[in-house]
Amino acid sequence: PYYEIFEGWHLQEALNYFYLVRSLKSKGLVSSSSLSVPSQAFVMACVVQFKDFYGAYGKVGDNDGMVAGFQHGAVNFHGARYHTYDVSLPLCQYQYKRLSKTFCIAKIDYDGNNPKLVAVDDDGEGW
Q1: β-strand 96-98 against 116-119: which pairing, if any?
Q2: How many whole angstroms separate alpha carbon 62 and alpha carbon 44?
Q3: Predicted model pTM
Q4: For residues 109 and 42, what is the distance between their CA atoms, to the nearest angstrom?
Q5: Closest CA to 13 of 114, 115, 108, 82
Q6: What is the distance between the alpha carbons of residues 117 and 126, in angstroms, rounded to a whole number?
Q7: CA nearest to 65, candidates 54, 57, 75
Q8: Could you read off the pLDDT of 81-122 as tens digits, one per residue?
């Protein structure tokens, strides 16, 4: 038996487990009738506003990107674009204000012949 505990980066671990189970089942290495623990995962989200987020991920240094005599232009190029890519943020590390209730954005089914990752639609439906 194989047992998985989602610790740390929950979303990444849930997706990694999904792709692992799906691949093993598609290759016949795991029976399609096998049960998975966990059998499902739900991807939950909420809208938050951070007070000091930019200080952790924004530009550093003076106008030229200099910090203690070192050029940080390359760091600032990526750091100033934090809003353009996905970031997994443990909320315990930041001060934040919750702007919405928690809601489900996807469900991952690990059991069955063909494990599925199903996103909800605009009405909160999809499965």
Answers
A1: unpaired
A2: 38
A3: 0.66
A4: 9
A5: 108
A6: 10
A7: 75
A8: 767 766 667 777 778 899 999 888 899 999 888 888 888 876
Structure tokens given for 23: 């691949």
Q: How many CB atoms lie within 10 A of CB 106?
A: 18
The position carrying tokens 């189970």 is: 21
Contact 96, 46 (CB under 8 A): no
For 40, the 3-state DSSP assignment is strand
> Which amino acid appears at position 32 of this protein?
S
| Contact by Cβ (8 Å): 109, 116 | yes
Residue 23, pLDDT score: 92
Express each pLDDT in 26-55 by its tens digit.
Answer: 999 988 888 888 899 998 888 888 877 766
pLDDT at 57 over 60: yes
Residue whose pair of structure tokens reads 């910090």 in the numeric block: 67
